[in-house]
Write a structure and sequence with these properties.
CATH architecture of the largest domain: 3-Layer(aba) Sandwich
Helix content: 25-40%
Number of domains: 2
Radius of gyration: 22 Å
Strand order of the largest sheet: 3-2-1-4-5-6-11
Mean pLDDT: 93
Number of helices: 16
Strand content: 15-25%
CATH class of the largest domain: Alpha Beta
Length: 437
């Protein structure tokens, strides 16, 4: 990608807007404030704790990423968003049940100061949720205009120089691209005509991109993965990315599957089941929302294992994903996997994984990194799909005609090489003089 503007340390405030102020968003915001007050460490955040190797191994140049590339400082971040419930972030954090009350109370005044704007919401697209903190409008277009007013007012009231928007709301029903999505003119016509193939997440994305605000999609919704909004992103020179934060079970798949392929171990079947009790679990209890998530989860193995290139190992493996709503578990999701694999001479083996994870704890640092990297992309002139941020997504958005890269380690290599490119350093390919590169 062409670097149009010299990478420089930003000045002023960066506003991070989240459609959805539930478990993920409140955990993210509470975490950042806790870190700013010196109460916690930014564990899980590449931008805050990661390092990057520069030059030859013998050079011993391994700076922290936050010292290497000019990212916004945590102290310069301002938070806002929308939700269909009126609870401020303190109340929403208590209801989400991710962080313990002691942690939340340490930053209570700060969380109480952030209240959601009224959401653009239609229960048709998220059937298991209902709320009354919702905007009213004649059409999707009218609602998009209201969102634009919200964005501009937030920027003014909080004295922000720049903004980014990260979708942290629930999974919408499964949708496929249709005629209304084919180009920007058709999409804007559909907004005015209340076309049912336009979902609320698309309205948020349209509002953001219209104002030059970078947008990332943290759910498996179609959202910006349509030609119309890609066209808008290029027209206004705005970076976009998505979709579906890579947490929990899929994170494990993108770590394990590359290992199986690297060792050329075969796969007969991979059965995955989840139990989850938070708002996301309730939403995914609806078959149409689950279909959206299922498509995101199922695509991972096929792309990593490449059965068309390794038919003897992966052409006929069986892959099943289940998600079960179980209220007592809350945000503490359990992902259980059974892998039936085979090795030398076809002899069978098994791998079993029981990942007792905290979904929002894994998602929160992703929100932070995406916000900081999208802001960097905008400042240096990157626009359109940011494939170098695929590291953070279950179903990475990719350029038309290409397949998505799911291998976590290839994704990390691409991310690091992009950072090197931005700062004018040599890319590391592990080629050249064997003992020095």
């Amino acid at each position: 990608m062409e670097i149009k503007n010299k990478p420089e340390k930003p000045s002023g405030k960066l506003g991070i807007l989240t459609p959805g102020m539930g478990a993920v968003a409140t955990t993210f915001v509470a975490g950042v404030e806790s870190i700013r007050q010196g109460l916690s460490k930014p564990i899980g955040s590449l931008t805050q704790m990661g390092t990057i190797r520069l030059g030859k191994r013998t050079d011993n140049r391994v700076p922290a990423i936050k010292d290497f590339v000019p990212l916004a400082e945590l102290d310069d971040l301002v938070f806002g968003g929308w939700d269909l419930f009126e609870d401020n972030m303190y109340e929403a954090s208590l209801k989400a049940g991710v962080l313990n009350k002691e942690s939340i109370n340490q930053i209570k005044p700060f969380l109480e100061s952030i209240s959601p704007m009224k959401a653009v919401f239609d229960q048709k697209y998220v059937k298991k949720l209902s709320g009354d903190w919702v905007k009213k409008g004649k059409s999707w277009f009218d609602l998009a205009e209201q969102l634009k007013e919200d964005i501009l007012e937030f920027k003014k009231q909080n004295n922000c120089d720049r903004l980014v928007m990260i979708w942290c709301a629930s999974t919408e029903i499964f949708m496929k691209p249709s005629a209304v999505h084919k180009d920007l003119a058709s999409f804007e016509k559909g907004l005015k005509e209340n076309n049912p193939d336009i979902a609320p997440s698309m309205v948020y994305a349209y509002a953001a991109l219209s104002l030059g605000v970078p947008f990332a999609n943290g759910a498996p919704n179609l959202t910006v993965d349509i030609p119309a909004l890609m066209e808008l992103a290029h027209k206004n020179e705005v970076p976009i990315g998505g979709k579906d934060f890579k947490t929990g079970q899929t994170l494990m798949k993108t770590i394990l599957a590359p290992g199986l392929k690297a060792r050329l171990l075969g796969l007969n079947g991979w059965f995955s089941t989840n139990i989850l009790g938070n708002r996301d679990g309730e939403v995914l209890d609806d078959p149409e929302s689950f279909k959206t998530k299922e498509e995101s989860k199922l695509s991972v193995l096929e792309h990593i294992l490449q059965p068309e290139l390794y038919p003897d190992l992966y052409s006929d493996f069986y892959h099943k994903v289940r998600i079960n709503y179980y209220p007592p578990r809350g945000d503490n999701k359990e992902g259980w996997d059974n892998l039936d694999i085979f090795g030398w001479l076809g002899y069978p083996m098994q791998i079993k994984i029981d990942f007792l994870c905290r979904d929002s704890i894994l998602a929160a640092p992703i929100v932070l990194d995406l916000a900081l990297f999208l802001d960097l992309s905008q400042r240096i002139g990157f626009h359109g799909i940011q494939e170098w941020l695929s590291f953070y997504f279950k179903s990475p958005q990719h350029a038309p005609g290409l397949y998505p890269e799911h291998d976590l380690f290839i994704q990390l290599m691409k991310l690091n090489n992009t950072l090197r490119h931005i700062q004018g350093e040599n890319l590391i390919t592990h080629l050249g003089q064997e003992y020095y590169d």
